[in-house]
């Protein structure tokens, strides 16, 4: 299985409490959702907008034996894709992300 990291951050995989491997970000373009903000009112004189999400851009087509690490937002917008992974983060005692010990998928 090939795992391609489409996030801008290295992903440290933690097994048995230790980093077993680091998955570096790919040089491929990062997936993004198109957005449109629709004004729905104001708060304290500042516009209040509802963000509407559109199509996913820069997400590679599925390939046999390839999984892509993406953000939770990209995963949520592509519920039919079984090849997308989101890191389940592990934090230290101060709340800093130190890696992931599992992945979520659709």
Question: What is the number of helical segments per DSSP (H or I, 4+ residues)?
Answer: 1
Radius of gyration from CA coordinates: 17 Å
- Mean pLDDT reading: 96
Q: How far is the first residue's CA from the last residue's CA?
A: 17 Å
Strand content: over 45%
Order of strands in the sheet with the most strands?
1-6-7-8
Q: How many E-type strands?
A: 8
Show unreliable segments. Answer: none
User: What's the number of domains?
Assistant: 1
Envelope shape: globular
> What is the SS-derived class?
mainly beta
Order of helices and strands: EEEEEEHEE
Helix content: under 10%
Main pleated-sheet profile:
4 strands, mixed
SSE layout:
Elements: E1 2-5, E2 11-15, E3 18-23, E4 32-43, E5 46-57, E6 66-69, H1 72-77, E7 84-91, E8 97-104
Parallel strand pairs: 1-6, 6-7
Antiparallel strand pairs: 2-3, 4-5, 7-8
Jot down its keywords.
mainly beta, 106 residues, two-stranded antiparallel ribbon, globular, four-stranded mixed β-sheet, 1 helix, 8 strands, single chain, 6% helix
What does this structure look like?
Strand 7 and strand 8 form a beta hairpin. The longest helix is centred in the last third of the chain and has 6 residues. 6% of the residues lie in helices and 56% in strands. The protein is built from one helix and eight strands, in the order ββββββαββ. The radius of gyration is 17 Å and the shape is globular. The protein has one domain. The strands form three sheets. It has a four-stranded mixed sheet, with no helix packed on it. 14% of the residues are buried. The mean pLDDT is 96. By secondary structure, it is mainly beta.
